[in-house]
């Protein structure tokens, strides 16, 4: 069992009450009354993430937890109604910490190339990656808009004009299929790279926060939470591993960690990975190495 | 695209049979996998496997499936209705003054166990055929008394099942198929004839039942020309927490509620009526036999269908456990030794005091209630010595050896799943899963009575013999 | 044409479910287009652009799930909604079913409609029946069990062939389907090379070499060891080649087996001839000419097979590390061995690994004995007593009777190893250590105390005992490859980088006077 440091501390000081916001087979989201944020209880099959607690259960179905059930903390235990009690004193503490941007970017350039090829072959189409097979008019229009808007965004980023990039980033929010729309996932990847310490774009962090300020009405709460956390560099463990592999890893590390990310959601993982590539290329360009 | 190429493009979803570590390896690779609770079919006996294989021939399977479909349809569509109460001599086919019906497959006096002998001698005294128990035992051994299984006379009898000429019987009519079924009245309490008790108090009660209780019920039902729809009442009782074998609280309340207005309308005295109500109130078991008659009525309608492998009878005489199968028409019994019943005992008794499994009441499980419907009766999980999950598990587990679900009788806790219906001999032998039976425990000695309740299973031999016979019979 | 929409307020489904619902909704009869998506402003904009906007969608919030259906008539829309609702509820019922335990393949197949493959590992006496049940329920089968009669195998394979299903086995220990390793297989990269193998550890070896060369596997189909015998006629291998030929992801096909029966070889070669994709053939001890004539690419050894496959799959030769033999090492070891230390003792847990090493030795020596020698003159008279050059497959039936496979239980091999090490005529002992799913969690560790013991013994007796270890595995396997290799090196064992090299090194070490 393991959990996000902030989440565990919140339980330790008993400042969490709320209700169940949504339930899935492998995760349950809790809406916290104190700060309005979503917190996640995840099954052992899910990786660590910001505001997440991974518990030792393969599936959460068996607890039969319903939406709107009460959540509270007592004696350093987290209760969901009378159905689930989580003792956190044995939980490993985890914190989302992104690696530093390297001074030598040769590895990054090589790995990005490999990563692109891999996504071409194995990434999941339907979101940011275009579907090649026949599409309905809705899908065609969707991928047209996604493509058009990412190209505009990329162009501004590569030229380090983040003020211009803002509107294009916002135009991606809530766009696309899935629980977390593809546009949002792409931005999660992008934000991650802007939050890499020592990276050329690191100073432009406020860009992410500005985008997020406009995001709330444009997407659902679950996706919004992911964006909000990513805007300050807090992302899931699997994304951190991937970033680490890209920056410092061998080819085999890269594929392993990339595969884990590609397996997130349906097309979400692929969308996130493409967001990472976009951001890293912008970093390389701005840093004068591409 | 070929099926193999389809597989290449699908997410693997594996059924794992045998070595369990292969399942763990698949889980490690995030692959969906289901590990079977597998045991060698027919306990690994080559003859049985050969028989299963014979029955697996596509042409034969088709025949069996069609026959079983019909059999199960008949069980499900049967609408048993309680239409009256009469003395056995007046209604039961083949009944004579010197006939004693008993539970289970055929048995002779010399092989009967303690409780069965106690009940037989008590009944002989009750019928006035002997002046005391000693003389009764002598008579029973003499060959003057005709012993015959209840089941071979459209009857069922709980525990010893001993049924004699002047006992009052439920009469249950199958409104769908027209056949009738009978069973005698509950003696309530624990020190009773059917449990092997036979002292004067037992005989006196039987006399009162013959002279007052039976006649009042009989009169009352004559005032109710429509009869009482038992299937509807059973469905209701299950929704109220009975499994209608070992828990009959709700069913008894419903039954007496339906009988009461007409009991009040009869010409009997107020004191006699009060006695009747007090007697019914003295034990929850009053409706127990009623459900047995219902089950018998439905299952008889499904008996004798050529090529069917559906079990239509499970019954025990305290020495042997016998089953009958639809596809083996008439009175072909397949037997094995009666089993021990495991469960909590009344204070003062020990497991070694228990008589072996006895009674026709397993007809309820054959129909799909009792142990099969354990999930409806969480209140008696103590009987199973387990948790509510275990109880639910019993009901879902029985689906592995049954053919269908009865949509007329449902289990709320399992999302209103119908009770598991139509035990298939093939599936029992193939899976090694035996039907689960809730039942009472009688003392092994004659004359004592009920000392506990619990659960048991049939001997697998009965099913194996039936399978071998079926494989020879179905061509 | 009409467009209707339903909005489910505050409804969340995970993306994978949404995708699969959406795909299924589009397959419903009468539906021209169906969309299931979160009601964000941007998604609504897309709908507007393609004329799917309705008043309901207009007011939907970003936390609402919207379902839009376009169909010919209102009635069709209605019935589509009903079917979509069913899809949603189906998901709900499947929730509760995870608890259900199944006792038969038939009931499990019925209860889990998504099930597509049965892995069967029960006693051989019951195995054919279970396999047949699986095929009858349209499940592909991997039959791990051995001791299945040849008649049963024929029947099962014919049934599977008719139904277009995989019938891998009996006695099939290795397969990789959809990148998932089944029974005994290694974790290898996904790639463009497909394998059909009648030899379990042979397939494992080639898949691991391909992985090491930086390429990967699409599918690895096991056929069971007898598939290419006269009676079976190669049913599974022929079907496997066909399936891989039709598989888009597969660019190169590799076949692995002992030499087939002549009539079967003909069929396989005929299929290679008409196959549109390049086929690499490694028939252990097989004939090069025939394969070449059929247009196939012949490989004499395992690494060679992997190398040919990756080159055909587009790998650049000059970038590969082919791990050539360490020639100076050979000289060094030869110098250490006395003239009496003449013989190789190969102690293998993998049958094909043993076979390959044995064939390597047979190229230079006549007196090569084994429990799996095809020539009865060179079969060991007593499997427990070695003779001249001896290669033992501990996975062969006579060693596994009533015992687990040596890849799981190394005990038999350990005691034999000590016995061989004491023999003064032995120059080199060569052993395989197989990693991967299903295999022992620490095969090297299990052998280590024995290695230490004999090394010490040999030292006391003043002779050098050369031990070659080959660890078959990848860095992705559940065991730690690096750690296993380090343990070997620390114990003074010579590490071979492939089974091919293990066989060659063993042979070269004991060649005298070249």
TrEMBL record, chain A:
Question: What InterPro entries is this protein classified in?
Answer: AllH-like (IPR021530)
Q: Spell out the Pfam families in the cross-references.
A: AllH
Recorded protein name is DUF2877 domain-containing protein
From TrEMBL, chain B:
Q: What is this protein called?
A: DUF1116 domain-containing protein
Q: Which domain of life is it from?
A: Bacteria
Alphabetical list of Pfam families matching this protein: AllG
Automatic annotation (TrEMBL), chain C:
InterPro entries listed in its UniProt record: CoA-bd, SUCC_ACL_C, Succinyl-CoA_synth-like
- Residue span(s) of domain CoA-binding: 190-283
Q: Please state every residue range assigned to the domain named ATP-citrate synthase/succinyl-CoA ligase C-terminal.
A: 347-506
The protein here is known as Protein FdrA
Q: What is the lineage of its organism?
A: Bacteria, Bacillati, Bacillota, Bacilli, Bacillales
Protein's gene? fdrA_1
């Amino acid at each position: 069992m393991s959990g996000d440091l902030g989440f565990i501390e919140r339980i330790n000081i008993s400042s969490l009450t709320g209700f169940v916001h949504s339930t899935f087979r492998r995760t349950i989201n809790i809406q916290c009354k104190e700060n309005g944020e979503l917190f996640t209880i995840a099954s052992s099959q899910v990786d660590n993430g910001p505001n997440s607690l991974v518990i030792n259960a393969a599936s959460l179905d068996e607890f039969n937890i319903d939406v709107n059930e009460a959540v509270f903390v007592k004696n350093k235990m987290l209760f969901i109604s009378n159905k689930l009690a989580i003792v956190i004193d044995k939980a490993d503490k985890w914190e989302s910490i992104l690696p530093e941007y390297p001074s030598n970017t040769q590895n990054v350039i090589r790995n990005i190339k490999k990563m692109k090829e891999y996504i071409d072959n194995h990434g999941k189409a339907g979101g940011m990656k275009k579907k090649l097979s026949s599409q309905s008019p809705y899908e065609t229009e969707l991928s047209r808009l996604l493509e058009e808007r990412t190209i505009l965004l990329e162009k501004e980023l590569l030229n380090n004009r983040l003020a211009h990039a803002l509107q294009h980033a916002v135009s991606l929010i809530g766009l696309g299929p899935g629980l977390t729309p593809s546009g949002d996932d792409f931005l999660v990847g992008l934000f991650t790279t802007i939050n890499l310490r020592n990276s050329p774009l690191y100073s432009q962090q406020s860009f992410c926060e500005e985008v997020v300020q406009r995001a709330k009405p444009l997407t659902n709460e679950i996706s919004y939470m992911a964006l909000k956390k990513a805007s300050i560099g807090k992302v899931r463990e699997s994304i951190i591993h991937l970033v680490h592999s890209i920056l410092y890893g061998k080819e085999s590390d890269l594929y392993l960690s990339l595969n884990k990310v590609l397996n997130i959601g349906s097309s979400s993982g692929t969308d996130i990975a493409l967001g990472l590539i976009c951001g890293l290329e912008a970093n390389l360009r701005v840093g004068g190495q591409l | 695209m070929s099926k193999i190429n389809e597989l290449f493009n699908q997410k693997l979803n594996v059924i794992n049979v045998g070595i369990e570590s292969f399942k763990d390896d698949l889980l490690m690779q995030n692959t969906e996998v289901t590990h079977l609770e597998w045991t060698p079919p027919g306990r690994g006996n080559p003859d049985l496997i050969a028989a299963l294989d014979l029955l697996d021939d596509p042409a034969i399977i088709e025949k069996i499936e069609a026959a079983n479909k019909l059999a199960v349809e008949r069980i499900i569509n049967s609408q048993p209705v309680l239409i009256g109460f009469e003395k056995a001599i007046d209604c039961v086919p083949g009944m004579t003054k010197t006939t004693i019906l008993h539970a289970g497959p055929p048995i002779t006096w010399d092989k009967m166990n303690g409780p069965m002998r106690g009940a037989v001698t008590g009944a002989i005294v009750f019928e006035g055929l002997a002046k005391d128990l000693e003389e009764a035992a002598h008579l029973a051994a003499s060959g003057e008394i005709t012993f015959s299984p209840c089941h071979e006379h459209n009857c069922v009898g709980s525990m010893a099942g001993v049924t004699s000429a002047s006992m009052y019987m439920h009469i249950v009519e199958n409104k769908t198929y027209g056949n009738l079924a009978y069973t005698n009245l509950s003696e309530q309490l624990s020190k009773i004839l059917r449990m092997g008790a036979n002292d004067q108090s037992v005989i006196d009660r039987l006399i009162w039942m013959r002279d007052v209780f039976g006649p009042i019920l009989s009169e009352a039902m004559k005032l109710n020309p429509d009869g009482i729809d038992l299937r509807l009442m059973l469905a209701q009782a299950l929704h109220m927490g009975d499994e209608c074998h070992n828990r009959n609280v709700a069913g008894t309340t419903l039954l007496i509620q339906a009988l009461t207005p007409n009991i009040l309308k009869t010409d009997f005295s107020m004191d006699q009526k009060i006695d009747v109500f007090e007697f019914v109130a003295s034990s929850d078991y009053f409706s127990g036999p009623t459900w047995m008659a219902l089950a018998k009525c439905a299952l008889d309608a499904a008996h004798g269908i050529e090529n069917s492998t559906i079990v239509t009878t499970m019954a025990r005489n305290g020495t042997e456990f016998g089953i009958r199968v639809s596809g083996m028409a008439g009175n072909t019994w397949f037997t094995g030794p009666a089993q021990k019943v495991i469960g909590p005992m009344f204070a003062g008794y020990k497991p070694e005091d228990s008589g072996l499994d006895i009674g026709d009441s397993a007809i309820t499980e054959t129909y799909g209630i009792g142990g099969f419907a354990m999930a409806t009766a969480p209140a008696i999980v103590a009987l199973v010595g387990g948790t509510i999950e275990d109880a639910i598990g019993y009901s879902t587990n029985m689906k592995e050896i049954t053919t269908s679900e009865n949509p007329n009788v449902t289990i709320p806790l399992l999302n209103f799943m119908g009770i598991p219906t139509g035990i298939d001999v093939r599936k029992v032998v193939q899976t090694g899963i035996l039907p689960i039976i809730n039942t009472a425990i009688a003392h092994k000695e004659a004359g004592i009575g009920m000392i506990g309740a619990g659960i048991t299973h049939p001997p697998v031999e009965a099913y194996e013999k039936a399978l071998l016979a079926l494989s020879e019979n179905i061509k | 044409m009409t467009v209707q929409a339903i909005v489910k307020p505050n409804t969340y489904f995970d993306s994978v479910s949404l995708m699969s619902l959406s795909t299924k909704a589009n397959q419903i009869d009468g539906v021209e287009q169906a969309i299931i998506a979160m009601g964000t402003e941007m998604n609504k904009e897309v709908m507007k652009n393609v004329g799917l906007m309705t008043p309901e969608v207009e007011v939907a919030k970003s936390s609402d799930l919207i379902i839009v259906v376009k169909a010919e008539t209102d009635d069709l829309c209605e019935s589509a909604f009903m079917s979509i609702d069913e899809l949603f509820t189906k998901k709900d019922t499947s929730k509760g079913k995870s608890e259900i335990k199944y006792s038969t393949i038939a009931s499990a197949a019925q209860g889990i409609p998504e099930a597509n493959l049965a892995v069967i590992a029960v006693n051989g006496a019951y195995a054919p029946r279970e396999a047949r049940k699986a095929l009858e329920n349209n499940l592909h089968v991997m039959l791990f069990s051995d001791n299945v009669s040849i008649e049963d195998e024929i029947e099962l394979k014919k049934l599977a062939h008719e139904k277009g299903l995989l019938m891998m086995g009996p006695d099939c220990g290795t397969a990789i389907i959809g990148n998932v390793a089944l029974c005994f297989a290694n974790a290898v990269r996904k790639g463009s090379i497909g394998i059909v193998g009648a030899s379990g550890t042979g397939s494992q070896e080639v898949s691991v070499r391909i992985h090491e060369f930086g390429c990967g596997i699409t599918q690895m189909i096991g056929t069971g060891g007898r598939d290419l015998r006269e009676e079976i006629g190669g049913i599974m291998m022929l079907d496997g080649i066909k399936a891989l030929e039709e598989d888009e992801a597969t660019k190169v096909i590799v076949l692995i087996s002992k030499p087939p029966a002549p009539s079967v070889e003909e069929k396989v070669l005929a299929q290679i001839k008409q196959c549109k994709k390049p086929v690499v053939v490694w028939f252990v001890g097989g004939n090069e000419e025939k394969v070449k004539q059929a247009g196939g690419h012949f490989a004499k050894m395992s690494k060679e097979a992997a190398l040919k496959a990756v080159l055909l799959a587009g790998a650049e030769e000059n970038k590969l590390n082919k791990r050539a033999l360490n020639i100076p090492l050979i000289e060094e070891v030869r110098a250490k061995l006395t003239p009496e230390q003449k013989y190789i003792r190969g102690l293998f847990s993998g049958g094909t690994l043993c076979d390959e090493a044995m064939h390597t030795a047979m190229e230079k020596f006549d007196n090569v004995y084994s429990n799996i020698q095809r020539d009865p003159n060179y079969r060991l008279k007593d499997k427990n007593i070695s003779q001249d050059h001896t290669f033992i497959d501990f996975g062969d039936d006579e060693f596994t009777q009533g015992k687990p496979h040596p890849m799981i239980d190394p005990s038999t091999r350990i005691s034999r190893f000590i016995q061989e090490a004491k023999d003064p005529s032995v120059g080199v002992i060569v052993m395989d250590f197989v990693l991967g799913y299903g295999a022992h969690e620490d095969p090297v560790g299990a052998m280590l105390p024995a290695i230490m013991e004999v090394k010490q013994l040999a030292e006391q007796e003043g002779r050098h005992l050369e031990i070659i270890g080959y660890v078959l595995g990848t860095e992705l396997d559940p065991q730690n490859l690096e750690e296993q290799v380090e343990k070997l090196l620390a114990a003074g064992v010579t590490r071979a980088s492939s089974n091919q090299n293990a066989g060659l090194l063993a042979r070269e070490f004991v060649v005298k006077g070249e």
